[in-house]
Design a protein that fits this description.
The complex is a heterodimer of chains A (about 350) and B (about 280).
Chain A (H helix, E strand, L loop, with lengths): L3 E10 L2 E11 L4 E5 L6 H9 L6 E6 L2 E2 L10 E4 L11 H12 L3 H15 L14 H13 L5 E5 L7 H18 L2 E6 L2 H7 L2 E6 L2 E6 L1 H6 L4 H6 L6 E8 L2 E4 L4 E3 L12 E6 L4 E4 L5 E10 L4 E7 L2 E7 L10 E6 L5 E3 L6 E2 L7
Helix pairs in contact in A: 2-3, 2-4, 3-4
Chain B lengths: L4 H33 L3 H4 L13 H9 L2 H33 L3 H11 L3 H13 L6 H26 L2 H9 L4 H12 L1 H17 L2 H6 L7 H4 L11 H21 L1 H14 L1
Helix pairs in contact in B: 1-13, 3-13, 4-7, 4-10, 5-7, 7-10, 7-14, 8-9, 10-13, 10-14
The chains are: A alpha+beta (about 350), B mainly alpha (about 280).
């Protein structure tokens, strides 16, 4: 169990800088999720933490120890790989024992640790099978078991759920979260799936092009996104963005409708145009003639709620409504953002600004 | 375009005919060799050749009386097994490192050495081994035959190592393995069938190579294949004896190939299929 400190970390591949200087503090026993689109540097960062990639600049500390030059074998970390990376020629038991054997652990202790981990992960019936005789979910558990028996300082997960089907993914997601509570070990989990990030993390690190866009709890990142990128990446369906003109009496949308100051505070800075961001669930249906006029183009009933694709202010907007409303295609409705739930972004810097016109 | 069943049947027949033709072309010299070894000397070179004849074993009797065939066989075995082991010992780690680092030029250099005509090496080697008084020793033959076995081992194993997901090696690194342990505990067991294929190919090529033995061996260390040249004289050649010797020499590689043919095919096509 240990904290992780990353100071001004730089990683280059050939002449390309993948991580241009990254700072991050991960607390002991914290569950951190690195999230971002493909190529954002999240897996590279994880591999740097693991010692599988060299560091080109900056400092990496695990606990009190600087590990820049420490090889992976001596970092006391465990990693669960995307393809599980189980040793195909070894049984589940041998897979789990391998790292302990490398350390010279006594056979009796190895056996008891395997037994304990197997019970925790419910894989006791498969201990003498080879990986190829296991299903995807079982292999995933074995990969976690292999990490658990080592009792490492830090667990690293590299998109471990991406090879599972949707149902199993949800189940294993919950299992990993429960496990993290039991094990009380620092965990760093990489994913491109924002739902995994939201459901599992103590804190989410949103990355783009090797740069951290925002670090915060799932609630902070969801409710107060730092910029347009975070706002669009976190949340499904994505936040709706509408251009607005800043006027004396409020914000005017492209169709001429006015959002009064009572709904969203007008920034005091010298902005003429802003980008209004509203999540699909933060729209309210209002009376005819009020708010933003919209025509329903597509209805997607999800059971628990219904997604309605509408054409409003000259663009497509997605609205989440109660299934009881039974909206119909072609129907005309009027929308208004829920009070205090809309966000404003500077269209040039893409940074979110609050009602005073300053960045948060 | 979808193929009609009748078209596919025709293709099957064409395949069968082509395979039979290829088989006949490949097997005729072998069949000729084996049949000739059981013919009396005067019938071996008779034209047209007789397919129906009374088999005799006189060529084999002459062979066993005239030459210490067993000791030549043992020499062949020592040189072939030695050079195959030597090739495996150096070639397997070399292939692993080439695959791991993705630096393959040393493997290409090894292959070029294999492709160069053997006579190119003969003179320098003869001079070198004479300097260190090793002409006629098993070691001279084993070391020189490594030119045959080493590239085979490297090039057969390279696609096997390339085929192992890199994450398995990385998992082993994280698990605390040194590079040598990764090679021994993870990589080698995963390419065991490749090791068998490369060992057999190296054995066969080394067994059949006669040039180095012809020059670098002496009467005590001469290999079977070099010894068989004793039957070729300046004035006359004992074709029957030569065919009997060739049949015996061909037996070990043939038996080995028959035992492992399934492995051989999958091993030789591994790189091509998995890319």
């Amino acid at each position: 169990m240990a904290s992780i400190t990353i100071r001004n970390l730089v990683k280059n591949y050939g002449g390309v800088t993948v991580i241009p200087g990254l700072d991050l503090e991960i607390a002991d026993e914290e569950f951190i999720v690195l999230v971002g689109p493909s190529g954002c540097g999240k897996s590279t960062l994880l591999r740097v933490l693991a010692g599988l990639e060299a560091i080109d600049g900056g400092e990496l500390m695990i606990g009190d120890r600087r590990v820049n030059e420490v090889p992976a074998a001596k970092r006391d970390i465990a990693m669960v790989f995307q393809d599980y990376a189980l040793y195909p020629h070894m049984t589940v038991r041998q897979n789990m024992a391998f790292a302990l054997e490398m350390r010279g652990t006594e056979p009796a202790e190895i056996a008891s640790k395997i037994e304990e981990a197997a019970r925790l992960l419910d894989i006791r019936p498969y201990l003498d099978r080879r990986p190829k005789a296991l299903s995807g979910g079982q292999r995933q558990r074995v990969a976690m078991g292999r990490a658990i028996v080592r009792d490492p300082q830090v667990f690293l997960f590299d998109e471990p759920l991406s090879n599972l089907d949707a149902k199993l993914r949800g189940q294993v997601r919950a299992e990993i979260k429960m496990l993290s509570k039991k094990l009380k070990t620092t965990m760093v989990f990489v994913t491109h799936d924002q739902i995994e990030a939201m459901t599992m993390a103590d804190r989410i690190v949103v990355m783009k092009a090797g740069i951290i866009q925002q670090v915060g709890t799932p609630e902070q990142v969801y409710e107060n996104p730092a910029n347009l990128f975070v706002a669009s990446f976190i949340g499904s369906p994505s936040m709706n963005f509408l251009p607005v003109d800043v006027q004396a009496d409020g914000l005017r949308l492209a169709d001429g409708s006015l959002l009064p100051e009572s709904l969203i505070a007008r920034p005091s800075g010298g902005h003429d145009r802003l980008t209004l961001g509203i999540r699909p669930e933060h729209f309210e249906l209002v009376q005819e003639g009020q708010g933003l006029a919209a025509e329903i183009e597509l209805v997607e009933p999800l059971g628990s709620d219904t997604l309605v694709h509408v054409s409003a202010a000259g663009q497509e907007v997605i609205v989440r409504v109660s299934p009881d409303l039974r909206p119909q295609s072609g129907q005309r409705i009027w929308l208004s953002p829920a009070a205090g739930k809309a966000h404003l972004f500077d269209p040039e810097t893409e940074i979110r600004i609050d009602g005073t016109g300053k960045a948060d | 375009m979808a193929m009609k069943p009748s078209d596919s049947r025709w293709l099957d027949w064409i395949n069968v005919v082509l395979l039979v033709l290829a088989g006949m072309i490949v097997m005729t010299p072998t069949a000729w060799m084996i049949l000739s070894s059981f013919k009396p000397s005067y019938e071996v070179i008779a034209f047209p050749p007789k397919l129906i004849f009374t088999p005799v074993i006189e060529n084999y009797v002459t062979l066993s009386k005239q030459t210490p065939f067993l000791s030549y066989g043992i020499n062949s075995l020592i040189v072939t097994v030695g050079s195959t082991l030597f090739g495996l010992l150096l070639g397997a780690p070399a292939a692993f490192v080439a695959s791991w680092t993705r630096i393959t030029w040393p493997a290409v250099v090894a292959l070029m050495a294999r492709m160069a005509p053997g006579t190119l090496f003969l003179l320098p080697w003869y001079v070198m081994f004479r300097q260190v008084d090793m002409i006629g020793s098993y070691w001279a033959l084993i070391l020189t035959h490594a030119v045959i076995t080493l590239p085979i081992v490297i090039w057969v194993l390279l696609p096997y190592f390339d085929n192992i997901p890199r994450s398995i090696f990385e998992a082993a690194q994280v698990d605390g393995c040194s590079p040598f342990r990764i090679f021994r505990r993870i990589a080698l067991p995963l390419v065991s069938s490749g090791l068998a294929v490369s060992a057999i190919l190296a054995f066969v090529f080394s067994w059949n190579f006669f040039l180095f033995s012809l020059v670098l061996s002496n009467s005590q260390t001469k290999t079977l294949i070099a010894a068989s040249f004793n039957f070729i004289g300046e004035g006359s050649t004992n074709w029957g004896g030569l065919m009997a010797a060739a049949t015996i020499i061909a037996l070990p590689p043939l038996i080995l190939a028959a035992i492992v043919q399934r492995w051989l095919i999958s091993g030789l096509t591994l790189g091509a299929v998995k890319g």
